[in-house]
Amino acid sequence: MNISILRECTKVRSLSQGIILPAGARILLIGGQNGVNSNGEIVSRGDVAKQVKPALINLQLVLTTADGTLEDLVKMTIIMQQNY
Fold first, then answer.
1. Residue 22 has what DSSP assignment?
2. In this structure, are residues 6 and 20 in contact, taking their beta carbons and an 8 Å threshold?
3. Can you give the pTM of this predicted structure?
4. Average pLDDT, 10 consecutive residues per value, the chain (84 residues)
5. Which of 18, 19, 28, 35 has the highest local Cβ count within 10 Å?
6. 63 and 57 Cβ atoms separated by less than 8 Å
7. By C-alpha distance, which of 43, 55, 13 is closest to 5?
8. How far apart are CA 32 and CA 14, in angstroms?
9. CA 49 to chain CA mean position, Å
């Protein structure tokens, strides 16, 4: 697969400001997953540690639905907030 990386946009050559994927390429962008159950209810409200597992299960469900696995992830950012 031929992927074009745009580096001309910045003076910092180690960064890429954009990537052009060829026609037919497949990319999955996953929005924020949180600790909710299958009914959309927050699991263990107020206990961020107990909400991590269902959040990661929800992430895996999205990947599985798209025929992907955790090994297919390029980047993952985890933001945790207490009292939610």
1. P
2. yes
3. 0.67
4. 52 61 82 83 86 90 89 85 65
5. 35
6. no
7. 13
8. 27
9. 19
